[in-house]
Design goal:
single chain; 493 residues; alpha/beta; Immunoglobulin-like; TIM Barrel; 2 domains; 8-stranded parallel barrel; 7-stranded antiparallel β-sheet
């Protein structure tokens, strides 16, 4: 057993959590849409074909904003195909799939209302450009009296959709992207698209594509070049990151949160460098609009070989360690809540997702569902500056932690023990809050790191209460099992 310490004090804060930090992502990829959120004829489907059982879990998950329709898919997408009565069937080269377009913008907006989430819409800047983005904006948001707004009304939506968050393309530095561009090409296109969209609706929130990942040879230089072109026109730069255990190295996998934090800090440094160079007052914030554990190497080893509609793609089944890493990634996002204002767990259903369905059948929560739901439920408020002291597990400290002070007088400590072998005895000084009491301590862990949830055992892995934690003389004492995600809630009133 090893020891770790930290101090919680309301005088030391990082920033306020934007609720949109707890977003997710729906792409026309595999079974995320078809037999995921949308399955006409399913016993649980409503009159719109939306699965009510999935909607119930989405609301429980606590998702606040959802990015749509991609992803790689959007870079070849004609938005017109997904509206109105005539829906042409197309090839989707991004995922070698057949797209029926039975589900489109109108269905998505109906779903967002049912789910209680804010839409984040991506425009195609791969094969399309300024005009098509402006057309989509007019169709979606203009009240009426124009060709495209009246077209929307004729499709059954007299009231405008009022979509405020728009992503200017997707991963445009990636050579796998349809319409891949250089930084200069994309920067100019993003700036001109943003400028034109703001001429229609000035108060939009616009997200420019950052590099597709910290490991890309373009990272850093891409962001700098794009922002030099588009700094005044955009509000956010995107970050994308996926993590998996490589070569059986589980200890490094558990350090994924440290890698995410370094990535965020490098992106912030680049944004602030351009701000200084351009002598601007405005700060560019970050939209971490794709993140998760993804066993990408499996997909790369077995790419699709046939054109199919809604094939089973990227359907990772998550275990205990995956959930602990997702918890650590949530901690990393919260620890940078001053600049990371939006984030999207990718994706929502079936495709590297917290929710799994079977066509015509059941739905259940994956292991990664639980840390996200707890963070969304208890991670609203002001993030406190937490600097733990702990022994190392591999190349990083064994304890990864943050805390959020809510307006209701609670303080929630989120803590991950990264050690695969040793429990951590945590001693947290909390006397700055007077005489707080413990409301709950829950832990997600299991001696079997490979344990998973299934349709037959949907609750095999879930948070469980711990009754041994205590506060004595202003110090919280808690035991954190090896490879565990912990949520400790305090009442400070």
């Amino acid at each position: 057993m090893t020891h770790a310490t930290l101090t919680l004090d309301p005088a030391f804060t990082i920033g306020t959590v934007d609720p949109r930090l707890f977003g997710s992502f729906v792409e026309h990829l595999g079974r995320c849409v078809y037999t995921g959120i949308y399955e006409p004829g399913h016993p649980a489907a409503d009159e719109h074909g939306l699965r009510r059982d999935v909607l119930e879990l989405v609301r429980e998950l606590g998702v606040t904003v959802v990015r749509y329709p991609g992803g790689n898919f959007v870079s070849g997408y004609r938005w017109e195909d997904g509206v109105g009565p005539e829906r042409p069937v197309r090839l989707d080269p991004a995922w070698k799939s057949i797209e029926t377009n039975a589900f489109g913008l109108g269905e998505f907006m109906t779903w967002t209302k049912q789910a209680g989430v804010q839409p984040m819409l991506a425009v195609n800047l791969g094969t399309r450009g300024v005009q098509e983005a402006c057309d989509l904006l007019e169709y979606a948001n203009h009240p009426g009296g124009t060709a495209l707004s009246e077209l929307r009304a004729s499709h059954g939506s007299r009231e405008p959709y009022g979509i405020k968050i728009w992503c200017l393309g997707n991963e445009m530095d990636g050579p796998w992207q349809t319409g891949h561009k250089t930084a200069h090409e994309y920067g100019r296109l993003a700036a001109e698209t943003a400028r034109a969209m703001r001429m229609i609706e000035p108060d939009l929130e616009l997200v420019a594509c950052g590099s597709s990942g910290a490991g890309m040879p373009t990272f850093g230089a891409w962001e700098a070049t794009v922002l030099e072109e588009a700094y005044d026109q955009v509000d956010y730069v995107s970050l994308h990151a996926y993590y998996e255990p490589l070569n059986g190295d589980l200890q490094t996998f558990l350090a994924s949160g440290a890698m995410m934090e370094a990535y965020i800090e490098d992106a912030i440094a680049t944004c602030d460098h351009v701000r200084a160079k351009l002598k601007r007052d405005k700060r560019i914030n970050l939209s971490f609009d794709e993140w998760n554990v993804w066993y990408m190497s499996r997909h790369q080893a077995n790419p699709p070989t046939e054109w199919r509609h809604a094939p089973r793609l990227l359907e990772d089944h998550y275990n205990v360690l995956d959930a602990v890493v997702v918890g650590s990634l949530l901690i990393a996002l919260l620890r940078h809540a001053d600049r990371v204002k939006m984030a999207c767990l990718a994706q929502l259903v079936n495709v590297i997702a917290p929710i799994v369905t079977e066509p015509g059948g059941r739905v259940w929560r994956q292991t990664i569902f639980h840390p996200f739901a707890q963070a969304s439920r208890h991670g609203r408020g002001t993030v406190l500056r937490v600097e733990p002291t702990a022994p190392y597990a591999g190349d990083v400290p064994a304890l990864h932690a943050t805390a959020v002070q809510g307006e209701d007088g609670t303080v929630t400590l989120f803590a991950v023990n990264r050690s695969l072998t040793d429990a951590l005895e945590l001693h947290a000084t909390v006397r700055a809050f007077g005489k707080p009491r413990i409301l709950e301590h829950s832990v997600l862990s299991d001696p079997d790191f490979e344990a998973r949830n299934t349709a037959d055992e949907p609750d095999r892995v879930r948070p469980r209460p711990v009754g041994t934690s205590a506060i004595e003389d202003g110090v919280l004492h808690a035991m954190l099992p090896p490879a565990s995600w912990n949520v400790i809630r305090l009442d400070t009133r």
